[in-house]
Amino acid sequence: MRWKLAIISLAALGAAALAAMAGPAASSSAVAKLHVQARIAIGQVGAGIVGAEGYVWTVSMFPTYQIVKIDPASNRVVERLDLGGVGAMDDVVWIAYDSGSLWVSRERSGEVDRITLDPLAVAARIKLEDPFDVAAGFGSVWVPQFGPYEWSVIDQGTDTVKKSQPATGPTAAVIDNGAVWMLAHRAQTLLRIDPSTNTVTQKIHVSTGGGVPERLAAGFGSIWTTDPRSGSVARIDETTGKQRVEIVLPTVPLWNPYPIATGGGSVWVGSDHGVGRINPKTNRLSGKLALKYDNRSCGPQGANVCVLGVTYASGSVWVTDVYHRQVLRIAAK
């Protein structure tokens, strides 16, 4: 059973996972409080978020599917695009950018949308079963598909699927160092893919306490993956293909880490009740921000991860705050 972000329960974990979370990162004394620079109301439950062409773009999943464009100069929403369809809180919705277009994967809709920026419009809808993430580059788009246990490649020039390959429950993809990296979640395996041939050239086992690596980020010569069940981040060296470390995060406020990104000299993690900053030089937590909620709609007692998207853009970190239907801008230093 996949680690579905919409159902995260304390009772399901047990004593072993709880004990693992009390590791070195949780006991660090040099953890600074992160500073919120702006709170930008979007009126939607934001999911994936990305910086592109001088703006920050987030895609919402409830109550409607929208592209929301934020101007970092003013910290205001300056444009919106409705994508159509009935929104759902339990959807899996991600966004990527490459070569003048945004690419949005929507699991429940069974499609990947290509969005032009000027004008802001839907240019193509590519039907794919159970798209679980999206990564764009090298003239193509890579889409892990959890349900059919495969990943597909979309040609950016024709907006058509040009190849599909099997994988064991893939949930995430990222591009770095001339390669595509695909996470076969059910097999706890990171796949290195040659973008020129779309063949798997390396398989790397990901070892985490929870056994459910979920999301990916690339940076500092490494691939980083979160495991919500063990409350940890695994770091895999891109050159050696070896896992360097598993970083266990403190339970408060970083229970159930899910989205992850790199930028500004750090690694950034979103979770049920907060945002964390990891120093890649020490592999330790160096900053955290606890988010407060007045009910149990998200977090370990609720139904949803409270921070679903995180990205670095325009010198800051941007996260989608599910409960307050806003985007937070956080100082990177």
Reading side by side through the largest sheet, how are the strands ordered?
1-26-25-24-23
Quickly count the domains. 1
Task: Characterize the quaternary organization of these chains.
Answer: single chain
Structural class: mainly beta
Radius of gyration, CA atoms, in whole angstroms: 18 Å
In CATH, what is the class? Mainly Beta
In short, what is this structure?
With 333 residues, the protein is mainly β. It has helices at 15-20, 251-254; strands at residues 32-33, 36-41, 45-52, 55-62, 66-71, 76-82, 93-98, 101-106, 111-117, 120-127, 135-137, 140-145, 150-155, 160-166, 170-176, 179-184, 189-194, 199-205, 215-219, 222-227, 232-237, 243-248, 260-263, 266-270, 274-279, 284-290, 307-313, 316-321, 326-331. β3 (45-52) and β4 form a beta hairpin.
Overview of the molecule:
The chain has 333 residues and is mainly β. It has one domain (15-331): Methylamine Dehydrogenase, Chain H (7 Propeller), CATH 2.130.10.10. Helix content is 3%, strand content 53%. It contains two helices and 29 strands. The strands form seven sheets. It has a five-stranded mixed sheet with strand order 1-26-25-24-23. A four-stranded antiparallel sheet has the order 2-29-28-27, with no helix packed on it. A four-stranded antiparallel sheet has the order 3-4-5-6, with no helix packed on it. The longest helix has 6 residues, at 15-20.
